[in-house]
Design goal:
The chain is α+β, with helices and mostly antiparallel strands and 121 residues long. It has a single domain, classed as Alpha-Beta Plaits (2-Layer Sandwich). The protein contains three helices and five strands; from the N terminus they run E-H-E-E-E-H-E-H. Strands 1, 2, 3, 4 and 5 form a five-stranded antiparallel sheet that branches. Helix 1 runs antiparallel to helix 2. The chain starts with 14 loop residues before the first strand and ends in a 7-residue tail after the last helix.
């Protein structure tokens, strides 16, 4: 297999997994539904409640949060990030993107089909 290519010839670095944490399931559902409806993401998985421990403004903080796993294309990251920032209640939300190293070609094709297309990629 050629570096950066799936078995079907798909460029893998065009697909990303974006993660963000939210304070409750309702917020997660709002972000997820908006991003999928607007075709900024093919799928958003909302985790069950998890515990986060972090330092914020010099204080050790511990909170219950939900993690959103957002499957999309890298060309949509800026627009997706702006949408999350608009809907997110945190002052500085976690919004990170991880490139996909490999994936089932049919699943990656599905991401393409379910997200908005840009003329320049």
């Amino acid at each position: 297999m050629t570096k950066g290519k799936a078995a079907g010839g798909t460029r893998l670095n065009k697909y990303i997994l974006v993660m963000t944490t939210v304070p409750n399931k309702k917020t997660g559902q709002l972000i997820a539904k908006t991003c999928v409806k607007e075709k900024l993401a093919a799928c958003v998985t909302i985790s069950g409640s998890s515990e986060s421990l972090y330092r914020w403004k010099g204080q050790l903080t511990q909170d219950r949060e939900h993690i959103l796993f957002i499957k999309t294309r890298d060309s949509l990251f800026t627009e997706l990030k702006e949408k999350i920032l608009k809907l997110h209640p945190y002052q500085v939300p976690e919004i990170i993107a991880l490139p996909l190293a490999d994936g089932l070609a049919e699943y990656l094709n599905w991401i393409d089909e379910e997200t908005k297309q840009h003329t320049i990629e």
